[in-house]
Design goal:
about 250 residues, alpha/beta, seven-stranded parallel beta sheet, globular
Length: about 250
Amino acid sequence: MSSQKVAIVTGSARGIGAAVAKRLAADGLAVAVLDLNADSCADTVSAITADGGKAIAVGADVADESSVTAAVAKVVEELGPPTVVVNNAGVLRDNLLFKMSVDDWDTVLAVHLRGAFNVTKAAQKHMVDAGWGRVVNLSSTSALGNRGQANYSAAKAGMQGFTKTLAIELGKFGVTANAIAPGFIETEMTAATAERVGVPFEDFKKAAASQIPVNRTGVPEDIAHTASFFVSEGAGFVSGQVVYVAGGPKD
């Protein structure tokens, strides 16, 4: 079996997940590019392999335990035991509380929180067996509260509590757990939010940048750099942390 470390990056067909998958591959890891539909992962996998990296596409519904179990088994068979998990998969169902349906609430909590639980639980045995592991969870500045995102804010706040608990439980096995809380990142999700509120995306970005100390919005690579550090050997004494990658101080 190859000594190359294996990472699973969920929601990595596009956006932040794709950037993280590419960066970890550039760092020398073999990467399982996991999304709801394996076919949608083709571009990310192709980009990695074109640069000399190793990656496979894996389809799974992270909210479904049996789907995740099968996906992790596929990763073990084709790449080796995963010792790095980046829980990035997510969806938006934004609405004000009085308009938000139970399905809106349940879907967001299921994908973000249950998904992170399912994937981490399925992979942690391989980390414990190896005596080394990294879990990186994607939270958000919305964990601090954001109008129209009661479901998303609750999910992202939950990711922070989940992260800190993993750090406590798994630290003695050589496994670290940290969370990244992005601010405004230019992705299909933020473009969809701009469309929902009826604002051209360029204007939406400009307005956001005016409130950010570094005077620009973020890009997926900003998050990938942070994930790369958390996964690195140099971050072995960093665990249970939540880092806000938002271009400046957060209240």
